[in-house]
Amino acid sequence: MTPPPRRRRPGSNGATPAHSFPRRGEIRRAQAITTYGVGSLIAVDHESFVVSGLDEADRSWRPDESPKIYERRLARLLDVHHFRLPPASDDTSKDGLRVRRFPLMHSCPECNELQHHRDFNPPAGRSVCGTCEVDLVPSRFVVACEAGHLGEFPYWPWVHRSSDRGSTTIGKCGGKLKLRTSGRTSSLRSILVSCTCGRAPEVSMEGSFRRNALKDLGLKCRGTRPWLGSSAPAQECGLPLRTLQRGSSSVWQPVLKSALSIPPWSNGRADPLAGHWEKLRKYDNRAAIEIYLDAVFDEGEWPVTLDEVMELLEAEREEDPEGEAPASFDHRYRALRNKEYDRLRCGNDESDHSREEQFICETPLGDQSVLEPLGVTGPMLVKKLREVRALKAFTRLVDAESTTDAKEMPLSEKPLRWLPAMEVRGEGVFLRLDEDRLDIWEKAPAVAARVERIRTAHQRMLEQRADDPSRAVPSPASPRMVLLHTLAHVLINEWSLEAGYPAASLRERLYAADDMAGVLIYTATSDSAGSLGGLVAQGEPELLDRTVRSAVRRAEWCSSDPLCMEAEASGTVGTNLAACHACVMLPETSCEHNNILLDRALLVGTPDEPHVGYFAGTGAD
Fold first, then answer.
1. Which pTM was predicted?
2. How many angstroms separate the CA atoms of 578 and 566, rounded?
3. What's the per-residue H, E or C state across 74-100?
4. How far apart are CA 459 and CA 457, in angstroms?
């Protein structure tokens, strides 16, 4: 993929910035959602920053650089009016993401002093020691809690702790902190911190990563949120603190939610009634809605007709989850997926297509009966699709895929009516598994036993990461979910080998529930690998039959066998069985579940139990 053009520095021929802050680097738009979103740490050259919250972004994201995008189904789920693309990175850019220096504790490799950045008296706009004139080094260590707060590592208490467990001397002692590296090893034992006061011996950083290391010093989280600036008051927290490497993936994990644009919301236009839907939903008859629209808009200036409004409201009510009142977020998110599944199964007719239509899903022309021996049914050619991925919140120390709302840190201090998001346009192939055959297969004791091992390991992991194990998120592992997940992975690997698609340019979207058994594989980038028709062509029944058979045959053997197939557990704390990077794992950008809940034995069986494979005996193996 061609990299974006570099931003020109102030004073060059580029556009004049809209502020007086110096530019420190550049990132791609997608990275502002997935990698360097609000609250994350970003390293630029020898400096380190935290990305500012949306309170500041609401003032700095210029409309011409961060245009609004609309996806009503997702906006309704996340309770916002619209979404906004992150600022562009090109020569016309006048603004960008605001960042703040963090951590503030720095060390000088020349004089070994360890102190606040400003105490080095650096020249304006530079990060150098005012005395030694060498680049300062940001602290390698930060602290965080499971509520999402972030803070500086407490070097003073760490150095001045007494030999008595639990006691500490906190505060200024008249001395200065020093940090040096012995160079003997690359471990924490070689990083030594001392104080010139002479009251405490030089100590290493060894042991600082223990779960109770800071708790033993009597330290608890004070609720600091540096991405919101000094004006944001600290929140009362009190949770245990954990020491982390500044570049650790546990420091920031995005909570991403996505939705496909499907009719009647996929006509390519902006949401005509953004901000009015909550009130419109309260009315249950055409007359009341007509009165409301007349009151809001000038006579004859309605953005849509009354019939269109009624159609859109009916489409929303169809996605309302049944039974649970009020419905939880997860329940409403499942209802959103259910509606997508129904639309992918039915497709839309040629007569419904227009030039602006963003969802075109058609039945292939070939004979679908060739797929029946495989237990595959209902292939659909998704010739055009649009997906919106929004950054809802972020977590620290907690897996974002298994978090609850209580563990999510919002992107701003005050409620906002928008969220940062990105949109992907491409194509895909949707297929389902035969429900009758699937029902028989998943009830087999051997199949249930293998999946139960995965589910138990995953549930144990979720409970270990939760403060209250009794309220941990239930594991989604089920026979059909693990089967569909593994099938999606082997198909992506097959198409990356046979059809020329990079595996990282494809993505899975699973529809696995009691009433769903489908998978959508689609292009996950918007460049040349995005929408050229090559993936759609793979969905024709004859080609799909060959692809599934080849993928299953390839899954029979792994270069790590017999260890891979016979493993009692693999992956993160045993959340996989027969799965490794040599057979079914994908780039993490392509997988919805971070490469867990996989088992290729459910596709092909094992030497001792061949019948556990869904495709065993079909001729595909």
1. 0.85
2. 7
3. HHHHHCCCEEECCCCCCCCCCCCCCEE
4. 6
